């Protein structure tokens, strides 16, 4: 069931060392790292940490909650919500290299008591029914064609009354999208659904939608601002470009173009699992 193209797309050899070197170059003390030191590099989604903070507030996170981060990447959002809200977080990701880096960074900032990462597939979550208070997912479903299965799985592992928190890229009104983009170099690895498709998918899986925010315009303003900064001062040592390597420039340009031309949209969604007992 492992999707080698997706794993290959994200895997970068010795990524942990590459990240530590970038942190050092940016003047951070790698032996005394704080969660905020990592923020420019470990939030692999549009609008980075800001978007994570907004989703966390909307989802109503609190201490003692057990959160599952599906497609946890190198773990920035998981570490942030554990550190800020005192949640226990389990991250699961298809890319083994990302899970190893995520765990290494958690250890370095002293959060390995609250956060753990394991390799696994969102289409077959390796957890019993009703395990988590919150299922959290940002920019991971964009790589997965079988949406019905992933939302069914998320519903299954949530406790009754639990919360699903989603921040995702959706299909816009114009297609196709320009490639490469940060999540895929070719159309076969990109699976976007529109707002009109996602809403019934979630409802059919059993979720009750509590809030739905279209954040496309804020995302475009953010991209315009980031592009301007890069044009003026070049790339800083720390940034998502460290994860994406040589194709970063083309990916970032396409991402902005896709937004400007209405080919992609951004949404923050919070839904509940409420079953009659
Ligand atoms: C763009 S990154 C987002 C990472 C993280 N959620 C964040 O926002 O920082 C997408 C992640 O989804 C993961 N992913 C893709 N398909 C997956 C699947 N079927 N199951 C679990 N993770 C998957 C990738 O390995 C990658 O780490």
How much of the polypeptide forms β-strand, as a percent range?
Answer: 15-25%
- Outline: globular
Measure the end-to-end span: 34 Å
- How many strands, what sense, and barrel or not for the largest sheet? 7 strands, mixed
DSSP strand count = 7
Small molecules bound: S-adenosylmethionine
Describe it for me?
By secondary structure, the chain is an alpha/beta fold. The chain is 42% helix and 20% strand. The protein contains eleven helices and seven strands. A seven-stranded mixed beta sheet has the order 3-2-1-4-5-7-6, sandwiched between helices. Helix 3 (35-42) packs antiparallel against helix 5 (76-85), helix 4 (48-59) packs across helix 5 (76-85) and helix 9 packs across helix 11. The longest helix has 18 residues, at 216-233. The protein is globular and about 55 Å long. The model has no long low-confidence stretch (mean pLDDT 95). The protein binds S-adenosylmethionine.
What are the main properties of this structure?
277 residues; 7 strands; 11 helices; binds S-adenosylmethionine; 42% helix; alpha/beta; seven-stranded mixed sheet
In short:
By secondary structure, the protein is α/β, with parallel strands linked by helices. The chain has helices spanning 4-10, 15-25, 35-42, 48-59, 76-85, 96-108, 147-157, 195-204, 216-233, 241-244, 248-260; strands spanning 66-70, 88-93, 115-119, 132-138, 158-171, 207-214, 264-273. The model has no long low-confidence stretch (mean pLDDT 95).
């Amino acid at each position: 069931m492992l999707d080698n193209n997706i794993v290959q797309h994200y895997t970068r050899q010795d990524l942990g060392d590459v990240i530590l070197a970038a942190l050092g170059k940016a003047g951070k003390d790698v032996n005394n790292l704080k969660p905020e030191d990592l923020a420019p590099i470990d939030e692999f989604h549009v609008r980075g940490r800001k978007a994570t903070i907004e989703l966390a507030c909307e989802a109503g996170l609190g201490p003692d909650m057990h959160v599952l981060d599906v497609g946890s990447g190198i773990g920035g959002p998981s570490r942030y919500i554990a550190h800020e809200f005192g949640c226990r977080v389990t991250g699961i990701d298809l890319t083994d290299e990302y899970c190893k880096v995520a765990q290494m960074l958690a250890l370095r900032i002293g959060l390995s008591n609250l956060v753990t990462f394991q390799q696994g597939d969102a289409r077959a979550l390796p957890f019993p029914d009703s395990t988590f208070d919150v299922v959290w997912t940002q920019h991971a479903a964009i790589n997965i064609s079988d949406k019905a299965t992933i939302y069914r799985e998320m519903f299954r592992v949530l406790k009754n009354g639990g919360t699903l928190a989603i921040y995702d890229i959706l299909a816009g009104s114009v297609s196709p999208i320009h490639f490469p983009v940060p999540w895929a170099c070719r159309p076969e690895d990109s699976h976007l659904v529109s707002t009109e498709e996602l809403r019934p998918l979630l409802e059919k899986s059993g979720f009750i939608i509590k809030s739905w925010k279209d954040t496309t315009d804020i995302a475009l303003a953010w991209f315009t601002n980031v592009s301007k900064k890069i044009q003026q001062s070049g790339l800083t040592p720390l940034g998502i470009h460290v994860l994406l390597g040589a194709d970063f420039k083309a990916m970032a340009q396409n991402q902005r173009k896709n937004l400007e031309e209405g080919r992609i949209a951004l949404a923050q969604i919070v839904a509940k699992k409420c079953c009659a007992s």
